[in-house]
Amino acid sequence: MGYEQIAAVDLGSNSFRMQVGRVVDDQIYPLDSLKEPVRLASGLTREKMLDEAAQQRALETLSRFGERLRGFQPDAVRVVATNTLRVAKNAKLFIPQAESALGFPIEVIGGREEARLIYIGAAHALPLVKHKRLVVDIGGGSTEFIIGKKFDPLAVESLFMGCVSFTLRFFPGGKVDKKRFAEAEVMAAREIQTITQEYRRIGWTEAVASSGTARAIADLLESNGLNPDGLSGITREGLGKLRALLIRAGSASDLKLDGLSSDRIPVFAGGLAIMSAIFSELDIEHMTYSDGALRLGVLYDLLGRFHRQDMRDATVQQFMLRYQVDARQARRVEQTALMLFGQLIDVEQPENESDVRFLRWSVLLHEIGISVAHGGFHKHGAYIVTYADMPGFSKKDQERLALLILGQRGKLEKLPSTPATDSIWSLLFCLRLAALLHRSRDDQPLPEVRIKGPDSGFHIELPPDWLSANPLSAAALEEETVSWKRVGFALRIKPYDLRKAAE
Q1: Same domain membership, residue 253 and residue 175
Q2: Which of 194, 415, 466, 478 is 20 to 30 Å apart from 241, CA to CA?
């Protein structure tokens, strides 16, 4: 499956951005872009609640973006939200309103996933080289650091500092002086020190900056001749001059330099302090600038999914190795679970592709918790996929995967309240039944199993003599009927009619 046009929407802590690209021979060519300075992070209260004014600004912007995206198929658009919606305590109440305004689902992604996507975007916008690059992206609420080679990130990290949050904290009212600027630099340096040793050990040949903050700084240095020897991008010497000019002016709004856009002024001081600390702490002399960032990375990641190069598949394989999953058992259960699911829906239909993928991933990872302890391994597995960094997966993806792994055995009442119409119940049914049927962990052929559901409950039909010949499985299936009844689903088990089967 593929589309001529695909779109990415980045709900950042400072700006909301949208990019539409045209796909030609596995390359993406920009067709259209929109940007609005929503300043979502400035609406976070001390209690980490997103205030009404920020929510309203966001919803109005998303309505406008939604108009541009009318006519796009759901899987041709990917919408990602970053730091502010990661930390806002009322994000789960706000996101459904935001999705309604935009017309597409929103993924809240983790910091390291954001960093991975930023690197992909930057790498595709830069010449292909053999050496390692350091890519730095200063956002509104977080800053991402990535070292990579060609298109592969080698180290990814997201630190809790951004141009909006630092401006609000250290430069209230936009006022800048030497003491405040130094305090902001020291705080940023402390954050960076947590990764300095590891990043210097890995090393890099070229440093690259992306994001609006980096572009604003680079434009100012170049437009005003602050870089030495006519260098482009960002230099340590130029940063020092710009820092002195800002402190002397007393605020970004009073900084009389060519090239500072009005929408960047309110967050400029915080971004400059962070960039200054990055240069000092990582001992950088010069950074080039890349237009490619999160949005372009999202587009290329989306393109990879169309070509069956989904990063999530690679992540699942890595987790199987890391947690020493019994691959033969996982494949047995996978094959049976997908066979069962194929009796409930048409697995070849595009609208069912997501459910098929989640069933496959949950089966392949259903035993990762055994690496912690066999007792309660489903709980350990659910914890791992909830809190681990899983490249390619959004936070919502990980929550759904965790729900399936948690629900693979035991009581179903422990699962959060989920509508009976949610397809996750069918996925759970197939996962639980497949795991039960392969309890012996061998390659003995299974009986022919027929299932129906879930509209009037689930039905399982088995050969007439199979239940009596397998009392352990029969007892387990009887327990299943009780478990499903407690969450409102009937489960009926009966032998199938051999005469009808013969017909």
Answers
A1: yes
A2: 194
Indicate the residue among 243, 270, 302 that finishes a domain: 302
Domain final residue, candidates 278, 302, 326? 302
- Spatial CA neighbour of 159 closest among 193, 135, 183, 185: 193
What's the pLDDT score for residue 78? 95
Contact yes or no for 144/118 (Cβ under 8 A): yes
C-alpha 485/C-alpha 125 separation (Å) is 55
Q: Which residues pair with 35 in a beta bridge?
A: 17
Token digits for 385?
Answer: 């996929």
Specify if 118 maps to a domain.
no
- Give how far the C-alpha of residue 371 lies from the chain's centroid of Cα atoms, to the nearest Å: 25
Whether residues 321 and 383 share a domain: the answer is yes
DSSP E strand stretches across 237-321: 286-289
Residues 6 or more apart from 69 whose CB is under 8 A from it? 7, 9, 18, 77, 102, 103, 104
Domain that holds residue 69: 5-109+296-302
Bridge partners (DSSP) listed for residue 23: 28
**What does the pLDDT look like over 281-323, one tens digit per residue?**
999 999 999 888 899 999 989 888 766 677 788 889 989 999 9
How far from each other are the two terminal CA atoms of the chain, in whole angstroms? 39
Split into its structural domains, the chain has a count of 3
% of the chain beyond a pLDDT of 70? 97
Using alpha carbons, list the distances in angstroms from residue 130 to 133, 134, 233, 265.
9, 13, 21, 37
Is residue 316 within 8 A of residue 364, CB to CB? The reply is yes
Residue 213: pLDDT band (50, 70, 90) is very high
The Cβ of residue 100 has, within 10 Å, a number of other Cβ atoms equal to: 12
Same structural domain, 210 and 330: no
Q: Is 193 inside any structural domain?
A: yes
